[in-house]
Amino acid sequence: MSTEIADVAIVRSIRNPVLTGFHPDPSILRVDDDYYLATSTFEWYPGVRVHHSRDLVHWRELGGIITERRLLDLRGCGDSNGIWAPDLTYHDGLFHLVYSDVASFASGYWDAQNFLTTAPTITGPWSDPVRLHSHGFDAALFHDDDGTSWLLAMSADWRPGRDRFGGIEIQQYDPARRQLVGRPRIIFTGTEVGLTEGPHLYRHDGWYWLVTAEGGTSWEHQVTVARSRELFGPYEVDPAGPLLTSVGRPDLTLQKAGHGSLVRTQRGEWYLAHLVGRPYTPLGNCVLGRETAIQKVDWSPGGWPCVSGRVPADEIPAPDLPAHPWPDEPATDHFDAPRLGAGWSTLRRPATDDWIDLRSRPSHLRVHGGQSPVGKQTPSLVARPVGAVRCSLETVVEFDPGDHRHLAGITGYYNTENWHHLYLTRADDGRSVLELLSCDGGHRTAYPQLTVDTGGRLRVGLRVTFDGPVLRFAYDLGDGWRWLPVELDATILSDEHAARIVDGEPAAWGFTGALLGLWVQDIGGDGRYADFDHATYLEH
């Protein structure tokens, strides 16, 4: 028995966060003995990442549900737009996934289109999406005991002077006709905390329990619970306060606690999945983005659900279920499979054969170059979330650039305006060189003094390392690893740094956390590609 399995059998606890790095807005679901967590993906494919567990302690990545443009087209999607707050339910033998595609967030307009797709198994096949409404985002389905289904959503109000978070609305969904029927009704307008969103509805002990997110998705975030004997209300808010929050507790490891969903185990225990952030300094930048944690929920004598202390704990008791560890994922991807592994994401376009090639050269990932760093239609970036304060991605790339328009390398990436990139390219005098370029808030910084002549080598080892607030690059020309003599600011690759408010209006949001990636640019459209021999991700 491995040490890890032996420890699990003794400790039997859940250590938070259970999903590290870019995994926000969790929707948790149990089907028989299986648990699933679905999380937001914004401008990244595959959309709606899903993790699977049998004990709530150990989770394995299944990949994403939105793998085709048939389900969602993210071409032109803005930074931190795209898929917000998916909802996963199971009813009448089908998995139901509701997801919002948010096209804007300026001046109070969200332009959020909500979709529904279904599948007989969690791995599909998923049906062609049904368009629901565009009333607001964070849509979720509730399947009542009488067999009816209802769509809840945050109701947006664009009108100047109005509360943009106009309350939680509900409308019946007819699965036979695959459309909404009847009129929508506002059933809850939230508490004085405001910014009421992220609704999930449950039936328990003769009550309807409405769980919402309030306070915004940053430091003031919380999980609010209200109940009613009737579906349409009125809903009474828990007089004891929020079910969970980190507000006023900068000493806690887990900040931003909010946006929760409930699950009941086979043995009647209740747990709450919710998002958190882990800043590097008190209320500082969260390079790891918004992550997923789980808390134990008990029911008070008055009937209300309760989390111990109403704050997020780093470690909690595991449910009374058999331990079920999964095999460790290998640190190195040798690119031997016909498709990208479940841990990889691609930016704004699915990993289709027109630009991702795992067949032409065995045990290599061939990436055909795409647009520049600001291009939002056909970028060529393959990445994975930064999952630890100290971690690295290492690769070997073969690339024959023709000129300065051809770049292939490795990156610490946040969005189109915030990144660091070490790449192989061609200098004006014909030399093959390594260059470093950074972008902070859209302002680029070049480091010509750090340019490395590869001596004609077109096969180069590259490494990017996150060491807390510092990011470093290294390279190997065949004679051992060498660090570039510069320490870069990793904290610009964070939600807090990316967000911008101009004249009281959001000019940019930051929802994704940092990623490590393999990036190929063919800015001239000359048909250039790069071959990556392997990629090794390590947490230190």
In words, what does this structure look like?
- The chain is mostly beta strands and 540 residues long.
- The protein has two helices and 43 strands.
- Strands 4, 26, 29, 31, 32, 33, 34, 35 and 42 form a nine-stranded antiparallel sheet that branches. Strands 25, 27, 28, 30, 36, 37, 38, 39 and 43 form a nine-stranded antiparallel sheet that branches. Strands 15, 16, 17, 18 and 19 form a five-stranded antiparallel sheet that branches.
- A hairpin with a 2-residue loop joins strand 36 and strand 37 (470-476).
- The longest helix is centred in the N-terminal third of the chain and has 9 residues, at 3-11.
- Residues 1-11 have low confidence and may be disordered.
Distinctive features:
nine-stranded antiparallel β-sheet; globular; 2 helices; 540 residues; 43 strands; mainly beta
- The amount of helix comes to under 10%
Total helices: the number is 2
**Uncertain spans:** 1-11
- The whole-number mean of residue pLDDT values reads 95
- Characterize the biggest β-sheet: 9 strands, antiparallel
Residue share in β-strands: over 45%
Based on secondary structure, the structural category is mainly beta
Per the principal axes of the C-alpha atoms, what is the gross shape? globular
Quote the distance from N terminus to C terminus: 24 Å
Radius of gyration from the alpha-carbon trace, in angstroms: 23 Å
Total E-strand runs: 43
